Amino acid sequence: MIKRAFLPLLLLSSGLASAAELTEVEVRWLKAGSAVLAYAKQELKLPLDITVQPQARANDVPLALGYDNGRCKLVLSMRGNPNAEDILNTVPAAQRPLMIEAMVAHEIGHCWRYAQGRWHAVPSGFEERKQTSAAEELRDTRREEGYADLVALAWMQQRHPESYATVAAWMRQVRQPAPSSGSHSTLNWLQLAPTGDSFAAGLPLFEQADRLWQQGLSQDQ
Q1: Which terminus of the chain has fewer Cβ atoms in its 10 Å neighbourhood, N or C?
Q2: Domain count, the chain
Q3: Rounded to an integer, what distance in angstroms lies between the CA atom of residue 153 and that of residue 171?
Q4: Looking at the structure, do residues 209 and 143 belong to the same domain, yes or no?
């Protein structure tokens, strides 16, 4: 639940309505993710707000998704954050918009799960192995991250198939340092989608991701 004070932003179909209030970095990230955001708001009708923190905290990631009062909150935490773009350090400048677009698609995957009432839910009949509450919390978060990563890759396959391999390799690199038991270790799912052909063509985006996600659940017990 997000309860901090934010500077609200308005998005119009033609672009940013309040771009004058934004920093250069914020504008660049929102432009890179504009196709995903338009899809989420116009086609999916997701209850999505875009907000900017006026001052990032020490451990804030540049882009995150929360849910509050029935609405998704896509939060940019870049102001006063000198490390906001560290995640892109290994990426050539020309490819960075693609990676940002994938990150935005990842967050929209979270929003979809929230909006559908499926957050931390598993398929009917799936047998859970009993763990401590702390371990279960990590596992549940990791599963949601795995689902969102697959949504990002499914999006790339639909919109940028020629760049799928590049984005998938970068995502594996980003996830690799995480401990296998960590909340953001999603390699169980990323390895199920080494190429765009791993996704079932013709299905809706989230159903494509869900099919592979369910396959990876058995490996994440």
Answers
A1: N
A2: 2
A3: 9
A4: yes
